[in-house]
């Protein structure tokens, strides 16, 4: 599992859809079989390339949602209205279909089991995906690192992995999850009070991972710095929202 | 490898006759940016022409917009393969700005707020081929599209039409600007598909 | 238009290099700030990657991908520190 990539340059490889799950009305998890997959670290992503019959192609990055289990690679795709790739992946791609995939990539926004510090995960919308991979990797490794996830999402119906998260909170000591609903009364945003109450104090020197739309990431990272967290321990991944 | 995704159309794209090679028609106005969008208050805006001998001529916003302006309707072609037809602008021709400038320079470097640069031969700025535009579609040019004012050089790929312009340096020798230094073509003629160096 | 993080160019760079450059450390030529390439603020994705220093906004790194070539411009970086073994 520690072996994140084979030596040599990466190229595109064929992946086959072997399973799927509906996570929310606007999100679908693709379960992909990728021959010779070298394994991946929690937080890494892949690039997906689709090519139309006339040769036009489009490329997008998606975070890996699953912990490496020696079998498949799971991506959770959030629909971007008017997007050109995500509607196809959600509505049209069928089990047995193939697509081109390059990865795993990204060795910076990752969590490794050997990290011992407490972990604070801040998710905005579909930014939960790579953070879920970290929670799953901790679960697979039966890790003891204290984990806290603050998950900002529009409504409970828009929350991915809700059942699995509550099961893991019940079964895996040291994992806490707090939801912030931005479109349910009283409408909330992630703020200083939320992170103070449901995050870790800066004194605990947690490793912080922030993922979501650019505005969410910048607001959340600013709050962490204002609360005294070391910028070197804050890792961010912005979603462009053009997929 | 080339896996074809049946049913994948991608963004709607029309290949209409009369476009430069490799271009598709778009009806919206995509925004590309190599950095944060600068917000320039009009009272802090200025445009400076610096000649090869170091002489400078400068206009503030009031002086600039008092110059004779023209309405132009042109097709624009982005190196990322979209083209947009019949776009309407108002701006000041570079002929007007350079009319009283003493120079023998063959090349220019366009400068922008935020540090962007792009190189354009002098002859491509003259004879009604280039403008500094401050209205698009009858409205003040929005910051995301280059407002308060941007270069408009429609016969070259659109990265040459620098957003947020604030100056022009006249040069005896050609030098690469921001994208040209990073691999894009020094001239950028869409009809010759001069996208990258060596094309 | 919103920027991304340096992370987002990991795939394009792994097509060129046998190590993950986004985990490497750059030193900004403009202000001397040093951090992971993955922490750069990434602009300009359609024409190429423009990685800007999060501290001073200077351009640290540019990657332009042509159909048959890739241009990597590092003039904004005085140093790049790469791990010798994978991850």
Automatic annotation (TrEMBL), chain A:
Residues 10-111 form the FAD-binding FR-type domain. One of its GO terms (molecular function) is 2 iron, 2 sulfur cluster binding. Its cofactor is FAD. PROSITE patterns: FAD_FR (PS51384). It comes from the Bacteria. Signal peptide: none annotated. InterPro entries: Cbr1-like_FAD-bd_dom (IPR008333), FAD-bd_FR_type (IPR017927), FNR_nucleotide-bd (IPR039261), MRET (IPR050415), OxRdtase_FAD/NAD-bd (IPR001433), Riboflavin_synthase-like_b-brl (IPR017938). The keyword Nucleus does not apply. SUPFAM superfamilies: Ferredoxin reductase-like, C-terminal NADP-linked domain, Riboflavin synthase domain-like. This is Oxidoreductase. It comes from Paractinoplanes tereljensis.
Automatic annotation (TrEMBL), chain B:
CDD domains: arch_bact_SO_family_Moco. This is Molybdopterin-binding protein. InterPro entries: OxRdtase_Mopterin-bd_dom (IPR000572), OxRdtase_Mopterin-bd_sf (IPR036374). The lineage of its organism: Bacteria, Bacillati, Actinomycetota, Actinomycetes, Micromonosporales. Residues 1-21 are annotated as: Disordered. Pfam families: Oxidored_molyb. Residues 35-179 form the Oxidoreductase molybdopterin-binding domain. It comes from Paractinoplanes tereljensis.
TrEMBL record, chain C:
InterPro entries: DUF6510. This is Uncharacterized protein. The lineage of its organism: Bacteria, Bacillati, Actinomycetota, Actinomycetes, Micromonosporales.
